[in-house]
Each structure stands twice: as structure tokens, then as C-alpha cells.
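Milestone M4 deliverable, item 7.
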Amino acid sequence: MNRFVALLAGLVMAVFASVSLAADTFRVLDIGEREYENGPALSVLFSEPLARDVLQGGFLQVTVGDGPADGGWVLSEDGRRLWFPHVEAETSYTVTVLEGVTSASGQVLAEPVVGRVETRKVEPMVGFARSGLVLPRGLSGGLPVATVNVPAVDLEFFRINAEGLRRFAQWRNPTDSMGLYRLEDMPQYGELVYSARFDLDPVKNRRVVRHIPVREISVLSQTGLYFAVMKRPGTFGYAYQSTFFMVTDIGLSLRSYKQETVVTASSLADGTALEGLLVSLFDDKGRTLAQGRTDKLGLFRSRDARVKKSVLIRGESAGGDLAFLSTRAPGNDLSEFDVTGRKDSPVDVFVMAPRDLYRPSEAVPLSFLVRNNDGRPVDVKNLFVRWVKPGGKVFSNVSLAPSGSSGYFEAVATLPGNAATGRWRAEVRLRPGKVRPVSTFEFMVEEFLPERMALDLSSDKTVLVKETAHSLKVAGRYLYGAPAAGNRAEARLTLRTRRACFPDGLKDFSFGLEEDADFLSVSDLGSLTLDDGGKGAFAVDEEAAKSRSPLSVTSEVSLFESGGRPVTRRFSLLWMPDRRMPGIRYGGGRGGTGELETHSLDLVVADAAGKPVAVKQLLLKVIRIDRNSYWEFNEGAGWQHRVTEKRYTFAESFMDLPPGVVTHDLTLPSGDYIVEAVDPGTGLSTTVSLSSGRGYGDGAPHPAKVNLLFDKKTYRPGDVARVTVVPPDEGEALVMVEGKGLLWARRTAVERDGTVVEIPVAEAWQSHDIYVSAVVLRKTAPKDPETPLRAIGVQHLALDREPRAMDVEVLVARTWQEEAPLPVTVTVKKKGQAHYGRVWLAAVDVGILGITDFASPDPYAWFFARRWYDVKGTDLFGKVIETDASLRAAMRFGGDGDISLGGGKPQAEVILFSKVLGPFETDRSGKITAEIPLDDFSGSLRLMAVAFDDTSFGAAEFETTVTPPLVIQLSAPRFLAPGDASILTADLTRMVAGEGDYSLRLEAGGPVCIDADAETVTLAEGKRKVRSWPVTAACDASQPPYGVGEVVMTVQGDGVTKRITAQWPVRPGYPGEARETRVRLNPGESLSLDAQSMAGLIPATVGGAVAVSTRLPLPGDAYVRGLLDYPYGCLEQVVSRAFPQLWLLPERARAMGIEPVPVEKRREILDDAVARVAAMQRHNGGFGLWSASGPEDPWLSCYAVDFLLTAREMGVRVPTEVLRRGLERQRTWLVKGPGGELRNDRAASFAVRSYAAHNLSRVRKGHLATLRTLFDNHVEDAADPLSVARLALALKASGDKRRSRGAADRALVLRPDAEHWRRDYGSALRDLSMTVALFTEQKIAVPSMADILDTLETNLRQTRWLSTQERFALFRLALAFAENDDTVSLSVAEGGESRKVKGKGPFAMSLSAKMLARGLSLTSTGKEPLFASAVVTGYAETPPAPMDERIRVVREYFDLEGRSLDPESVPSGTLMLVNLRVTASEEVPDALVVDLLPAGLEIENPNLEHSIRADEVVIRGKAVWRHAEENPLIHAEYREDRLAASVYLRRDHEFSLFYVVRAVTPGTFVVPPPFAESMYRPEIRGIGAGGRVIRVEK
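Output delivered:
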């Protein structure tokens, strides 16, 4: 029989599945378990309502076991569902629906349907059913307790004392579970006043709510704060359900303003004001900060600043009624209201900038208008501007004086050529230091090129419903006016779930299914060629994959120039699966970690435009997720952890929704749930997940909203603002005008349909942080349980500033075709009359502004903008415990009782058009005139004018097209590498009438060649012709292969002669080589160098130096050049780069064989380094590695102070406060040692303490007793010679010569463990070099100098790469030797010529390829041994072979659908995803990963708005964004020719880095190898595969 039933059920369900597709067929939709009246029930859902005049029960059968189940069927209100209640838990039921069931429309069920239902287990459960805090005094009801199959509870009630009010009460989540360890403290926080057992009279398997009748218990009906602890009889645990509740009729509310604090008191019974209430405010120690009585409006006001520190407010009526309000309770959630804006400030600064995007080496000009918070004059003598780089490092600080009148200031910052890319900012302060800036201007620094075309996208649809089909219209034009006729456009379509589809009108609402959240579909729309008008259209008709959730349909279009470079824009439409859809906003849980928690939901049904609509019988389902976790043993895999999951409908209800938002509360037991809202008309659902009983709620659900409707948009003093207050229900309203204090207040009764309140606008209301607010209170016993107790409304009161508006007009030709300056006139008027003012004027290429969508500056909008609603408010009204007619619990008993990697970076000049003029003063007619030099510019210019006087402001913009008679635009790669071959493309357009012949001639210079013969082209009006010529890099062996190449194009014809220059750098595509030879020359021995010394190197790149000394010869030039070329900027690199320049005045540099840096450049390097170091100082005086907000690095902090001290000694200006705080921090380290990780590293701690001692002794602050203790008791901790050497110097400077000599002797014999990881960036070479240098400088004898020099020479010979620390130490040693060398005697033979050299050493000379080809020999002719060193540098003829010196680097390419690529040949425009996979065999926290680009490829810079992104592309089973999340970058720069990223490599963990490139310029290009190295241990490095060639096809 069982087998037959199973087969029948399967057959019937198959039939059911087949007929369910017919929408008009009357059928059974679902058979299952549902909750009916808070208990389990069987449910049968039909496709349409049933006939009520037919006894349907006879057609349904329920069997359990071998017989029928007891019970009967109940028809739901909507007629679509039959309930079979009172079923048993954990029981198997079979439900049979026979043919004959009749619908209201007369249809009869044609086939029987059988369903088997396994009812879920019903766990016993009990808990407090509400999360409120207040029980209104004197009203019916009690403390609600929810129970399922728990017959009784034991409750203990404590009355909280004053200490408990401050230290024990949980104001944020009053209902929680509390552990025994906390409950044991109860005697000190409160008195046990009542305990009893209460019968809950549960209904089997049903959740029922019973109310503990606390108001009928005399000791609990008294006013005060109580604490109740609940326990199931006969059970024990580590924590118990608990709740705080307050019995009172006083509703307190706190409003904290900048200038005052206001407490309001209202009756909980009827919402009226409570006059004469004694209000007291206490601090956290129970001291009274303020006290007073409320006025007739129920207000207590205090301007005492101490009140801001209050933690508790007590209200006490004359009759003894008490109420308490914690100032630390959650504030009112105002996210539904428009209360955002910047914080109001007495002094306001408006920043005028021509743009917000710059390239390195550019000047950034800013202008500032200083006013008060209503745009009126304010006396400010100086402004202080701090220029801050990405990561928070300070670039420079400047002090500004006014420029003329009207509070106008100007500042200009010139960015260095190696400026960090990313987001910079200019912070404006009224005084120097770490005070909060009054204004901040952010701008980007990137290696960008201006756009040359405008791209506009549009559609024939505004929103898509059911279908995605629409026409995507494309319009392209060159910014100089010509249509982009014949240009190619490509498009991609992305479909992505958009659950927050109405962010403006329905903020924080979710629409659609959570399971669709990750839906993503990307497809190509193909390509098209724009017509003669520069127009085209893509037909979009992508399948929406039968999505049941809203989608964002985004088209991404790239329009290509003739040279291959694109302009990209996006266009998005909202797609809805039907005409309307339900939405849910989860407001959080308001409970603790107990068995029950109340959750707030906002529900709405919105149409496709986001407008709420009314819906009847919205189904709200609560689905519980039960998870079972267990271990399972498998012979093959061993023990495996498994998780099974079961979902079932826990509860459901039907709701009628008005055309608006409805708030609904759910009280749920502990567990995981999905809440689903189902629209009965469309069948569409929205789901939201939540966890109950886990304390995730913040206790601040969205309050009900009061609408405030103003009769006018703006108001003037003397006006009467008529504000209509529209609450969700009638009640008593407190209407307030609020700013920095309470400005006006009134209480009034308000009706549900709206009540008008008249507000007189006062003369004193002169700021823009003024708001009208309304709090509407209804009576505690509501007719409608869903109606909120308290509703809130907030609306900005806008002041009329139209009389202070200037009408500004920019008068300029819409099209300018003259090759002459552009004349511009700006007129300024007020009320139609000419007006005097000052005018700031800027003209900027639209091709720059469009990259960031820059908005023109507008001071009127800035000064009169809405400010932030700066009112902190909390109250008791949202914490009232709602009561209903639930049964009371019966009392049973109770009673009273108790970065230089990869070669040099490109430095070609990029010409940008951006000019700032003025400020000008208008003449009597209110005009200014100016001429703007155009400098051969062609394109669109945005002219931005800002006019101002002391109190009035205006702004205007105008775009003009600059169209010379002949427009020439050149396109080329942004850089090249030797061996690359590409093309130079020229677009030539005649923009005047008629036809003309033009001759073209091209000439190349520098390391590039062009194959171009002179030619003539004929151009007609408005027509564009494209010419291309082959270009090759490093084509002339007689010329240096690197540098800036250029092609000059000369065009003549029709009376026009133009010379256009295209520049691009040629840079190496891989790291250079340094070949070092070191020998000891005894008398008569020689060092010989010849052509073999440079074998395999490109001759034109060969350089180097040779040095001979009686000490160790060191090529100081190579060390200094290596430091200067290092482009990356952590604290260590900044200091190491600049440190040598302190000594390198031109004479000294030349004496050392070092190419001197120009004086101005040297000063710039040093000033910049001091500013950067100062910017990295932390609040405690130490320094961070990358920024002041980063972790402190003690050793580097000492290194930084060493640099600052030396800089000050050399005459460089160093901030005194920075140095003082740095030395104070080091005094702490000297005495106590550094903390953190170094506390347990004795060697690292000693290194820091000895370095601090050295620095402090230089300013006579080294305490001799401490230094002696450090030597006597801790010198054995030292693990390297340099740390002991620094202590020797400190002891010498402090006068203890004996211990100084002892420390020096120990330093000279100590050798570090090469295998030991160093926290001081050191190495054996660095330590010994710096030790000898310091001793030589300070005249400390080095008896074993010869042996030490041999050791150093051996270390140098064995070292392949040098860190920045080693480079600087070797420079210091070279410097010391240069000033303390003996006589050098040599015979120098070069080719066939020889000469004698004799003089004080060292002897140094530069090397070249020509010299090496001829041969060079140096022979010792003296009596003492000499040390000779030769370094030959250059770039190899072939790329370096892959290398794995503890780091392995692999590069892979993918398309944007995640398919692997091997890009030997790609069409121009192709997008590729680059993946660098880096693995280290040991921890490398300071790894630098560099990927040099092939020249025809360009990075899609993710820092720019319109760049292509690939975050959702799946590679090796993970989306790119997930890879990035698991492999965070410390710092990344997206340069023109490379990606450089600082990363932390963990041992044997693959670091995966992604970025997007686009093939742009046609040609064949060498693919450089990727590489990575430790920045401070360069012997740890890896080089990936390179040397292949990639071809970009046109």
C-alpha cells in the first residue's frame, strides 16, 4: 500500500507540474505545513478563491498512520487557502485533494492531487516578547512573555538604584540574556522586590503571548526602573532571559545642540506637555551637572557646556512619578530625511579650481574665498594650506596672505615629476597644526591624456519592463566640432541585479530575491561605424535570463580615434520583471541574545517608476532555516565536517498595503530566517535574510514619518512660514525650529489629514543649518496596533538669498576659427543693473574636464547650501512596550523578599590647455574683458567665470569650440622601447569653406626614426583625412637608444604653415645591468678593462666609473644615481634618496666623480624630503612607514630624526616642533626601550636604543648614566656592529672615552648572522660600511682597517644587488674616504696613450663604450697597496632570463569573460585582463611588484571614472574582486608605462594581482618581463618571462 501511495503521489505531482504552466487552469499550487494562529497547521493553496457556498471539506482527506486525522478545514479570508490546524509536531501526514473542489468562478478541480507533509519539530521556548523599555503607568496590559509549550516561568524583579542606573542598566538593548557573572553583581545595583512563578497557560504547539500583570502587583506598580530575570522552573544555565522596564507616565526626550541642551517632557498617556517637571542631568560619577523645571511647553533648556558630559537624565513630577533617559541610548534614525550636508562652521572657505585632474609636473592653482556661514565678510588674516598626497603624507605646508580685498587668497603647488598618483587634497585651516580643516579640495594626479572626442549615449526608453529590448543611440564628435564620421564604436552590455533600484525615493529598500544578488551577465553588442553625422545605434535585446529581480542594464561604449585610443562612456537603464514589485527594508533587531527578538520591517509595493502603489493581500512569509552540523567518517577522506539545511515556512500572513510605506514588527525565536513578500498580482517576490537572537540590532529602527509641507521654497526675515504637518495618525505635536540651539517651539494638536502651523521667520536666523522638526505623539492605547507611538518629521528651512545673487554671463563666440587669442567678456549684474565685483576666470579643455565630470565652481551654491542637521536626539517614545488583549499570566506563588625598477620613467612633455586668469575688477558697466592665448589649441573650451563681492556671488560657464582653419591631431604610442615598431597617425581636417592642397613633411629626432616621404593631401570643407607612417625606436646605432624621441610635422598650404610635434619617451623594457670588478693592486699590478667588459650590452647605454684609492674605492656616483632614480616613497626611501644631497654641493660632488645635481634641484629634493618626513610623523612623535596613520617603526623613526638633525646642521629649514617631538619619543625609547613586537626582540631593541642615544647625544640630551647602563648591561644583546658603533659615538660625545673605546672595539669584531631576519633594514654590508664611515668621520681609530677593507671588498664582490640602505652606507663610506684618503700613484693607459697620476686619493674617472673599446689600463706605481673598483653599467641586447631568487613571478592574460589568452596578435581596441601571480619562498613584507607594459598597450586606470573594470570576471573559480579582497595592495600606481604595486608576500602563498589593459596603437612591441623584489633585501627578487613580441593590428 505504501509503495502504491508513493507511486500515485509521484504521478500526481508530475501531472501537477505539467498543468501548472496553464495560467488559467484552476489548480492546487502548494500543499505543506504553515503556521495558523501561531501554531502548526496543514495548508492547501489554490490558484484562485474557492466557492464559499460549497462544503469543500468533503473533497479533502488527511491521513496519519493508517487512519484519518482528527480535525477540520478552515477557509482563509481571501478564499485561496484551506487550513487544517492543530496538527502534531514531527508527524507524517498525507493530504489528498479530490476532484470536485470548486472555485468561486465555477471551475472544478479536474484531477486529484496528493501531498505528503512531514511536520517540523516544535521546540519548547519562552522569552520576553517585546524589546521596549517603558510601561506607561496606569494603563492596562503588562510585561509580555511569549511561550511555546512552556507552562510556567519563575520571575524575579529588582528595583534599580542610582548606581545601577549608571553602571548596570542596558539602555541600548533592554531585552537581552545576562550571564551569571553579571547577575551576581545585582545586590550592588538593585534590590529584589518581588519573585513569583507565573502560569502561562500555553496552547499545545502554538506560540502565545501572555502578559505578566506587573501593574496589579503593588511593589511593581510604583514608578521607577526595574530589572526582571526569567527562568524556566527546574532548569539551570549560565545565562538567563532578562529585561529592563520602567513604569512611568513621563516621556522624556533629549535634543543636544551645539549651543544648548534641551530636555522635553510629555505625557505618555495623551502626548501633552508636562509643566513643572524637575529635570536633573548626571555625569558618569553620579554628580549633578544641571537641574531645573520644565516650562509650559514641557521644555528644560541649558546652555551650560558641562551638560554635554551627562550620561543620565532623570525627570520627576510633583506627584513622585519618575522617568530616566540615557544619553548613550541609540539616537533617532533620520536616514529617511534630507538632513545631510557639510558641517556648519563660523568661517567658511570656498575653493575655486579650474579642474580636479592633473599630471605629475603640473602646477595646481587654487583660489579661496573666505566668508562666514552666511557668505558675509569675516576678518581672517591668514590661511594655512596643507597639500596632502595619497596615503596621508604631507607634500607641503604654505601660509597665505589675502590677495586684495573681498577675503580672496591664492595658492599654487607644483607637483614633482615623480609625484605619487592617486587622490591628493588641499586642506585649508585657519591656523597651523592638527586642527580640523575648514575646507578641503580633493583632486586626482594621474598620467592621463585629454580626450579628443565627445560621446553621448541615449535610449528610446526610460525604464524597461519585462523586456530588455531598446535602441542605444550613439553620437560622437571631435571636440573641435567635426562629427566622428567613420569612427568605430564598440559596446558591451552588462546585466546585473539591482536590488536597491530606487535609492532616492525608497532609500535602503531591497527589491527582488537575495539568491539573485550575484547575478551577472556580460555580452558584446558588437561594433559599428558612425555615419557621416557621427551617429549610430546599437540594438539591445539581451535575454534577461528569466530573472525575477530588478536588473541594471548597462551599456559600455568605446568610441575610437583614428590612432586607436578610445573615449568610453556608460549608459544604464533599470529593468523590472513586471509592472510593480514588493520591497522590504530591514530596520534591525531590537533584542539581545535571548530566545526571542523583535525585528522591524518596512514594506512597500512600487511601480516601475519607484512610486508606491496600493496592494491588497500582500503575502508576507517567514521561512526558517534549520542547519544541522555533524562529522562523518569516510575511508578515503577521513573525518569530514558536514552541514545539512532544511527550510520551512515558519509563519505567514496577508496584508493590505496603502500607497506608501508600512512598518511591521516580527518577533522571532533565535535562529536564521528569510522574510519573503509576495505580490499577489504579479507573483513577484522580495526576500531579506535576518538572524534573530544574536544581538545584531542597533535598537534604532526607522521612526514613522511626519510630512512637513512648506508653502514657499525660501523665506526672508519677517515672513510667516505656513507649514502643514501631516502625521500618520492624529495626536499632539511639538513643532520646533532648530539650528545651533532651539530657536522656536510650539505644541499643537494635529489631524491625520494635516494641520497648518504658522512660524514667524526671525531676523536672527541667518545661517543655513536651520530645520523645522515635528514630533507627533499619539495616545498609548492605539486603535490600530501598527500605528506608531511617536512619529518624526524634519525639513530644512531654506532662506531666501536671491537678493545676493549676481547674474553672470560669459560672452564669447560659440565657435572661434581665428588663429589669435580668444576675446572674452564677462558681465555682472544684480537685479538687472550693472554691478561692481571681482571676477575669476578659467578656460580649460573639455577633454580634461570630461574625464572626471568636473562641475564648475559656484560660490552661491556653496555658501547658501543646506548644512548638516547637527542635532543629536534620543527619546523614550520609541521604547514603549505595546500591549494588546492577550491573556494574562496567572500568579501561582510569590511574596516580598530579597619603486627604480624597470628603468627610468617616461618624461615626455604632454601639453594641456588649462588657464586661470584674474581676478579682474569690473568696470562701471559691470564688465571685464580678457584675451586668452590659445597656443595652437583646437577643441572645446569650457569658460568658467566666478563673480563676487563682499556679500554677493554668481557663476556662469560657457563652452566654445576652437576650430582653426586646419586642425591637425597626431596619435602615437605613449612610449616605446628599443625594438618596437609602431605608427604615427595624423588626422587632418579642413574647417573652412572650399578646398585646399597641403604639403606634409615629417622629421624625426632623438631615439626614433620615421619612414615618411614628403606628400601632398587635398582637403575639402569639413572633411577629415587620416595618414599614417611607420615609427621605430632605437633605430640608429650611433644615437643613444633611450630618451625622448620626437617627430615634427610641418604642414603648409592655403596660406597656413603649422608645425606640430609629437613626443614620446623611449625607455628600457627590462632592468639594467651593473658589472662590477674589484681588485687589490699591489705595487706594479694593473686593472685592465676592454670591449669584453661590455660584451652583450647595447653600446649606446654603456656607462660607469672606475675608482682607485688607498682605502676601498667606491663609485659614489653609481650609489647616488641609484638612490635618486628610486621612484617609490616610503619613509626609508624618502630619507635614503635625499640624505646624500646634504653633502653634495657641486664642488664636493665633482671631487668625488659624481655628476652634481643643479642647485635649485638639490634644494627642491631636500625641502621635499623634509616635508614628506614631517608628514609621516605620528601623534606620539614617532614615524610611520607610509603615513602618519600607519604603524610606528622605531628604527626608521631614529633614521628620520638622524636625517632631520643632519639637515638642520647643513642649513636646511627643519620644523622645530617635528624635531622636538621626534627627540622626545627617542628619549622614551632610550630609557624604556621600544614596545610592541620589539619588546621581546633584544637585538632589535638595542639597535633602536643605541640609535636614539646617538641622536640625543648630538643635541646634548643623551643622559650619561643611561648610556653607561646600556653599555654595561645590554651590549651583549647587540647582534650587529652598527648598533654598537652608534653607542660608541654617543658615549664619546657624552665624555666617557673608556666605554666609547670598548664599544668601538666590540663593533669592529662583531659580525651579524646573515640568516637572521633584521628589523632595522640592515645587512652585513650596510652595517660594516656605515660603521667604518662613522668611525672615519669621527676620527675613531680602526686598527684593523686593512682586514676590514678586505672583508668589505669581498662582500661587495659577492653582492649582486644593493638595497637603498646599502647604497647610502656605501656613499657615506665613499665620502669619508674621499676626505681622509692618502696619496694615490697610478699609470693610466687609454688606447695607445698613457699618463701619470699622483695625488691625494681617491682617483676617479667615468667610463664610456668608446673608452672601453679602445682599452683602459690602470697600474699601481706607488709603494703601498691600492684598491681599485670598476662598475660598467648598461642594458643588455636581449632581455634578462627568468629568475627565481626566492620570488617567482608569472604573468597571464585573460579576456573579459575569463578565458585564457596567448596574445601574439590582437586587434586595436581589445581589452585584456592581466594577472600577475607572485609567490615567495619566505615572508617578504616589503615586496615591490612591477609590470612594464608593451608600448602598444595602455592601462585602464581604475582611479578614473570612465575606465573599464573587470571586478566580476571569474578567474580560477573566483571573481576578480574576491581575489583583490584576499590579496590587498598596500599601494598601487597605474602609470603610463607600468603598474607598480607594494604588496606583502607571505611564505608559499600565491599573491594574485589583476589589472585591465587595452590594445591601442598598432605595431609590434617587445613584451617586458614582470619582476618583483624586496625593497630592502634586493637579493630576494624574481623576473618573469619576457622578450616575446606582441602585435597590435589596426
